[in-house]
Amino acid sequence: MRAGIRKDEWLELAAEADGQDLNVWLREASGLPDKLIRKLEAEKGVRIKGDRLFLRLFPREEPQFAAEWNVPPILYEDDFCLVADKPAGMAVHPSRPEENGTLANAIAGYYIMTGQECRVRHIHRLDEDTSGPVLYAKNELAQLRLDEEMRKKTIGRTYLAVVHGRLGTARGTIDAPIGKDRHQAGRRRVSATGDPAVTHYETVEDFPGFTLVRLRLETGRTHQIRVHMSHIGHPLAGDELYGGKRQLALFSSMPESGSKAGRPAVTYTFNRQALHGERLSFPHPMTGEWIQAECPLPEDFHELLQHLRKMYR
Predict the structure, then answer these.
(1) pTM for the full model?
(2) Active site (catalytic) residues
C-alpha cells in the first residue's frame, strides 16, 4: 500500500479502488487488519471525501512510562516506527512499576522532547546486557503489522558475539529447543520439552582462544544465542550465567598440549556477555518496503576486538 500523507491525527490515502465503493475497498482490499478497521469505524476514525480516504491512525496518546532524558541514538524513524540503539546495561522496559532507567523511559522522554504523542510499543526485546537495535511501533496499525511479522519470522535480526574457543566449522545451524532451567531461576537450557529454537552462525574472525561469530535468529527465545552457543561448547565471553568468563586470558598464540608456551600475555576483563545486535531488517508496516537499521559496535565491544587483534598480531 502507498504511504499516504499524514495530516495531524489522520492519514490521507488515494485509494486504488478502480471505481469500487471505498467502504467496501477498505474492508476487502486495503490490506488493513480487520481488527483495526472495526475499531476505526466504531470510533468514527474513517472519513471519505471523493476518491480520498482518511483514517485516524495517529490519535494523541500518553507514553505510559515515566519520561527520562537519557535518549540513546535513534537509528531509524518515520511516522510509523522507530529503531533505537539500546546500550548494554539498560533493560528494554521496567519489570516492576517503580523501576526506571529503562529504554522505555528513554523513548517516552524522546517522544515528549520531539512533540510526539505516542504510546511506547516495543516489538521485540534484548537482554539487559546485550547492546543493539530495538524496534518500536508508533501507532496501532504499525504494532499489529509488526507483531504479525514477528510471528511469521520475517523480521531479520543479526548479531555479533565473541565466544570462547574456536568453532569446528566455519558455519552451521543450531536447532535445539529451549526451556526454563528448573534448578536456577532466570536461566534457560536446551530441553527436549522446550520451545523450538533455531540459530544460524558463521565465523567472522579467529583469535587464539576466541572467535568472533555472526549469528542470525529464526526464533526469539529468551537467552537463545547464549544458551545455544553454550550448548555447543562455546559460551559467550563475559557470560558467567552460561559458562563464559569475565576475566579473559588473551594469548599471543595458543599453547600446545603439555607445553607452557603460549601463556597469557594479558588478562582482560569484559563485564557483560559479548553480544551485540548488528542489524535489524523489517518490512515497513505501511508500505511493505524493506527497512534495514545498522547498529555500530559499542565502545566496550570494539575495545575487546582491538585487544584480541593486537594479541593475535
Answers:
(1) 0.90
(2) 127
